[in-house]
Amino acid sequence: MRRLWQGLLAVLTLGLGRRRERRRDEGEGDSGGGRGHDLVEPGPRNPGTELGVAALFLLAAASAVAFIVVYSLERFPAQHELFGVTLAAAFGFLGAGLIVLARRVLPSEELEEDYPEEEHVEAGIEAATIVEESGRSITRKRLLTAAGGTAGGAIGLAALTPALSLGPWFHTEPLRRTPWRAGRRLVDREGKPYRAEEIERETFYTAFPEGASHRTLGSMLVVVRLDPARLRLPRERADWAPEGILAFSKVCTHAGCAVGLYRKPTYPPTQPPPGLVCPCHYSTFDPALGGEVVFGPAGRPLPQLPLAIDGAGELRACGNFSNAIGPAWWGVNLEKPS
C-alpha cells in the first residue's frame, strides 16, 4: 500500500516537474539566470522503464473499457466472471504501473533526521522543491502523464457505469426482456409441445419456451386449468386464459424461489380455492384472480403470460408477461430472446 501512495505522489511529481521546467524556460528560475543548487541529485534515466509504465497504464485503461463493454452488451456467457476479471485487471495494471513508477523511475532519498516539531516556511519550500525536482530525470513526462490520465479516466467511467442500472429513469427495457414472444409454443422439459386437451384441472404443469434456454429465469412457467366460470382476471387480460388455461412465471416475486406447489381444496365449499404456493416462505397466489397474492410475504402478483390455442390445438404465447418477473434482483441471468 505504501508503494501505491508513492506512485500517486509520482504522478503529482510529473505535473509539478513539467510546470517547473516551463517556468525555468521562461526565465522565472533563480536570480541571475542560474538554476542554483539542486536539492535532489538527478537519477539515472530509464526510458525503457518509462515505456513499460505507460504500457501498464494503457492496459489498465483497456481493461476498464472492457468492463464497460461487458456490462453494457449483456451478450457474454460468463458475464459475471468477466466483470471481476476486467475490473481486477484494471486496478491491477494501474497499481503495477504506480509501483514501477515509484521504484524504478523516480529517484528515492532516505532522510534519517526526525521531523521538526513545528512547521517552518523554509521546510515547506524545501519539500515542495524536492517534489518538483524529483521528476527531472524522466524523459517521457508527457507520455506518462497522458497514459496515467487515460487510465484514471477510464477506471472512473467504469466505476460510474453500474450507476446506469440504479433507477427507472434509465434504460429499463432489460427488466422486461424474456424469451417469450407472440407465437412461441409451450413445451415440456423434453421439448414436446403442450396441447390444450392434455391440460387437466387440479394438475400442475411446468412449461418452457420452444427453442430457448431452460436456465433463463424468464423461461419457466407454471400452467394450470380452472373452470372458466371461476376466473376473475383483470379486464385487460380477459382473453389471456383460453378454455380456462392459465400460465404464470414460476419465479416467486418474494425471494426468487420456484413456485412448486399447487393447493387444491378437497372440500371446495369450506376450504380455500386453488392456489400456487412457493415452498420457501409459503407465498400463495390465486390463479383465478390473475396471480394475486392471497397469503405470505410476496409483495406483488405472480406475472401472467397471455396464451392462445392454435389450429393444431397447441398452446402458444401471445406476448410477454403482464409485468417484470421475480423479485427486485430478478435480472441476474437475463438472456435475449433466441
- Strand percentage lies at 5-15%
In the predicted model, the low-confidence regions spanning at least 5 consecutive residues are 26-36, 330-338
Largest sheet: 5 strands, antiparallel
In which range does the helix fraction lie?
A: 25-40%
Structural class: alpha+beta
Radius of gyration: 33 Å
Strand order of the largest sheet: 1-2-3-4-9
Q: How many structural domains does the protein architecture include?
A: 2
Describe the protein's architecture and organization.
The protein has 2 domains: 2-171, no CATH class; 175-333, 3-layer Sandwich (Rieske Iron-sulfur Protein). Helices cover 33% and strands 11% of the residues. It has helices at 2-25, 47-73, 79-105, 121-133, 141-160, and strands at residues 186-187, 205-209, 221-225, 245-249, 261-263, 275-277, 284-286, 292-295, 304-305, 307-309, 315-317. The chain has a 5-stranded antiparallel beta sheet with strand order 1-2-3-4-9, with no helix packed on it. A 4-stranded antiparallel beta sheet has the order 5-6-7-8, with no helix packed on it. The longest helix is centred in the first third of the chain and has 27 residues, at 47-73. The two termini are 48 Å apart. Residues 26-36 and 330-338 have low confidence and may be disordered.
